Amino acid sequence: MLAGYAARRESDASMRVTFLDVGDGRAILIQTPDGKHVLIDAGEDASVLRALGRAMSFYDRTIDLLVLTDTDQASTSGAPDVFARYRVRGVADAGGENKVVERSIANAGAPETILGLNDAIDLGGGASAKVIFVRDGMLALEISYGAARAAILPDGMTGNEENMLAAATDVASDVLLVPHAGAKLSVSDTFLSAAHPAYAVISVGSKNRYGYPDKTTLDAIAGSGARTVETSSGDIGFVSDGTPFRRE
Q1: pLDDT above 90 coverage of the chain, percent
Q2: Are 245 and 17 in contact (CB under 8 A)?
């Protein structure tokens, strides 16, 4: 169990998870019940700074924990910009190689934790993140607070879902981040049935050159009963007071 990434801040005892509009990349900001800020992934460019400016108070320049779920460009290329603008108090990842990010971590002097399967991070105020899958420098997370659950799948998850279902005891979630911008075969019917989310979030830029999300993925999500929401229309926020996540 990992803990201690920030001092207590002003809070309303709710947990907020915001899937940030960072174009074709992915970045998720968590505000914990005791006011900590946890950033999961950092997008593919400096767009993450504008997104954080929308989601955080203008005078707050601290990220208590940066979690990187993959080593790919869509997850990590904005990390140096985050380190340049914010004080990052800790980093957690699966230990994959990314020289640009490694240099930023070293320059900032931020402590780095390498996560393994079933490792848990105490996010503060009763919120936590658990590693439900890890392989080849990528990891999947379950974010929880009371009865609220959100599953964050890395872009490299495509083709690994059966292995994850075998490793994880339970993947049920209110909110699911669909990997790889909703590309074809990015999420299977089997996984959607096991997770049974109320919302499927697709982090994707508007008018992206690949035409994501793919229609087959959207049809699969609709067939599961989940509602699809896309960051191409702006930031997507969810909040919980310990009950299942609801849209803000």
Answers
A1: 77
A2: yes
Tell me which amino acid residue 125 is.
G
Nearest to 246 by CA among 117, 65, 238: 238
Claim: this prediction has a pTM higher than 0.70:
yes
Q: Is residue 190 classed as helix, strand or coil in its secondary structure?
A: helix
| Side chain identity, residue 130 | K
Backbone angles phi, psi at 246, to 5 degrees: -130, 155
The amino acid at residue 78 is G
Tokens in use for 159? 């083709």
Q: What are phi and psi of 68, to 5 degrees?
A: -110, 120
Q: Residues 59, 44, 149, 117: is their CA dihedral positive or negative?
A: negative
Q: CB neighbours of 29 closer than 8 A, spacing ≥ 6?
A: 16, 17, 18, 20, 37, 38, 39, 40, 51, 52, 55, 56
For 131, list phi and psi in degrees, rounded to 5: -80, 120
**Has residue 5 got a pLDDT over 80?**
no
Neighbours of 200 (CB within 10 A): 27
**How would residue 12 be classed by pLDDT, with cut points 50, 70 and 90?**
low
Supply the DSSP symbol for 2: B
Sorted by where each begins, the domain ranges of the chain are 15-235
What six digits make up the tokens of 132?
């439900």
Per the structure block, which two tokens stand in for 94? 């699966």
| Cβ atoms of 91 and 113 closer than 8 Å | yes
Write out the two tokens for 174: 């209110």
Which residue matches tokens 């920030």? 6
Domain 15-235 has CATH 3.20.20.140: no
Q: Report the alpha-carbon distance of residue 237 to residue 218 in Å, rounded.
A: 20
Quick check: 188 and 215 in contact, CB under 8 A?
A: no
